[in-house]
Amino acid sequence: MDLKISVIGGGNLGQSIVNGLINKGYKPTNLTITRQRTELLNDFAERNVIITSNNINAVLDANIVIIAVKPHTIASVLTQISSKLNPETILISVVSDYSLTEIKSYLPSNIKHVFRAMPNTATEVLESITCIAHSDSTCSKEIKIVESLFNNLGQTVIIKEELMNAATVLGACGIAYALRFIRAMMQGGIEIGFDAETANLIATQTVKGASELLLKNNRHPESEIDKVTTPKGCTISGLNEMEHNGFSAALIKGLKTSFNKLD
Questions:
Q1: Which fold has domain 5-159?
Q2: Coil, strand or helix: which one is 1?
Q3: What is the pTM of this model?
Q4: 65-108: per-residue pLDDT in tens?
Q5: What mean pLDDT, rounded, does the chain reach?
Q6: Could you tell me which residues come within 8 angstroms of residue 223 by beta carbon, excluding any fewer than 6 positions away?
Q7: How far apart are CA 61 and CA 251, in angstroms?
Q8: Beta strands in the chain (DSSP E)
Q9: 167-262: which CATH topology?
Q10: What are the residue ranges spanned by the domains of the chain?
């Protein structure tokens, strides 16, 4: 895979993207990742990824530039690199709550291929869901390139830009919600007799299996729940107890609170 890809911002998400690309077979020497404290990227350097603190150098020969910085620094980063971008470069922002219009306001008019994408940290293990938005003027060729890039890291869905905040909450923040659920299952497993390692394995594989049932069978969760809830059984008793204590309501409220934070 000969595309040269530069990730501007070597934080958790930026590192996950680069790790995923390496795991998928991209040449490390075609990948660049930037961070002010480059010593925090030494493990990438050991795998022949180009690491640098110089954002301008990172974008000069890049076919794809992924902006993965904090929201409060994106304006200064775009200002810094804008005049050095090749007109054919595809620029992808994975920064939350920063619109295509805002991004383009920092770029010269000849930079046409601008996207927003919202993956999650499961890119590292090639299991991300990435929501992608683009302007109407973006060419179909570039759209396919961006889809293909993120399909290598999991699955993608093209959405309207006005849904990007919702995508951030459901897909990116959602990783944390799912992990907290697994942690709670693990803690419950310990309380009923398992050691931590075994409880973690059972809980994690159970959640993975539940996800695969829905993805592969394309069914609503309730249809799979019905298969394991027998009359007067332990499953329905446990589910009802969770609902009486606000399980679903708490999760929905959490999603809405995160969404309102971005609004």
A1: Rossmann fold (3.40.50)
A2: coil
A3: 0.92
A4: 999 999 999 999 999 999 999 999 999 999 998 999 999 999 99
A5: 95
A6: none
A7: 44
A8: 5-8, 31-34, 50-52, 64-67, 90-93, 114-118, 128-134, 154-158
A9: ProC C-terminal domain-like fold (1.10.3730)
A10: 5-159, 167-262
